[in-house]
Design goal:
mainly alpha
């Protein structure tokens, strides 16, 4: 029989090892990002120039904005597959209606982005439909709306209108691209909501153990609906920023962004099974994917091979972050 002292020591050791593992996993995305920057910088020193690093950060912001809202949905244990179509649709609204409505086109585009999120959340909670089915169905409707708003074509935004209404998303302030400032404001705002408000605590509680949250009296459906609405809103903002950067809107503008958006969430350390994650992790994950993409370009890796690498990265990240205690049977 083990003595009480040995049992206490054994328990303390296990707790300490668990704490070390938790700390290591929390810091792993930052370690990976630093290592990747060092490797790519060692391959080509021009990568480490201040202007190039700012360019990398700027190129990452639209992906981060799209992924930031989905992060909250994944933390509650759901998924939003409509974000790329929402971003494309809002770019069409901005491009088509900025000449007609002026500044009013911007809140209209954001509202149009939040609406599909709200509908997806209502469909998932009220009709008890799995979120990936509900948001996939919404995605089809949003795609048609994008084609309708744009007349099935790409629409250019006149330069004078872009300078007047979209100046906050293009150009630089204090030498830093304004897309980066937009991303940092979104990072701060969503991090505050997720980490320092009752809403954030409820999101984590639902993702960790939904039945316990229901038993505790939380309005789970309302929290889920807000999470999906935020996801649509952030995807809409991503579409507005993309249209500002490119000077046009298109119903297929963000068609290749869904897999990278989900990948950067998982690579950043947010668990696909819910309960664990943060917005800053998604920010780091987006930077990791961007550095990997640019690094492979520096090294002459073809676009097709890059997609294979991204697939392996996603599988590896899910394997590391997934809490298998929540999923007893993998289907």
């Amino acid at each position: 029989m083990a003595s009480p002292v040995s049992s206490i020591s054994s328990g303390t050791w296990r707790e300490a090892m668990h704490d070390y593992r938790t700390t290591f996993l929390a810091l792993l995305p930052l370690i990976v990002l630093a290592a990747l920057i060092g490797v790519v910088g060692g391959w080509d020193a021009t990568f480490l120039s201040a202007s190039n690093l700012l360019s990398v950060a700027s190129d990452t912001m639209t992906l981060f904005l799209m992924a930031s809202g989905v992060t909250i949905v994944i933390i509650i244990g759901g998924i939003d597959l409509s974000v790329q179509t929402v971003a494309s649709m809002t770019s069409c609204i901005v491009a088509a209606y900025l000449p007609i409505w002026g500044a009013a086109a911007l809140p209209a585009a954001l509202f149009a982005g939040a609406l599909p999120g709200l509908i997806g959340g209502l469909a998932s909670t009220r009709l008890r439909i799995p979120s990936f089915i509900a948001t996939l169905a919404v995605s089809g409707v949003v795609t048609s709306a994008g084609y309708w708003f744009s007349g099935t074509r790409s629409i250019n935004i006149p330069g004078d209108l872009s300078n007047r209404y979209l100046f906050w998303a293009v150009g630089t302030t204090f030498g830093v691209p304004r897309e980066v400032w937009v991303g940092l404001v979104a990072l701060a705002g969503l991090s505050f909501a997720l980490d320092l408000t009752p809403f954030g605590r409820r999101v984590r509680a639902i993702g960790s153990q939904e039945r316990a949250a229901i038993a505790a009296g939380l309005n789970v459906d309302r929290v889920k609906i807000i999470a999906f609405t935020l996801s649509g809103l952030m995807a809409g903002l991503a579409g507005v920023v993309m249209s500002a950067r490119l000077g046009s809107g298109s119903p297929v503008l963000a068609n290749e962004f869904l897999l990278p958006a989900i990948a950067c969430i998982i690579v950043g350390g947010t668990s696909i099974t819910g309960g664990v994650g943060s917005i800053w992790r998604t920010f780091v994950g987006a930077l990791i994917l961007q550095v990997v993409r640019i690094g492979m370009t520096y090294m002459g890796v073809t676009v097709f091979a890059q997609q294979i690498v991204f697939g392996f990265i996603l599988v590896a990240a899910v394997a590391v972050t997934m809490d298998r205690r929540k999923v007893l049977i993998i289907k």
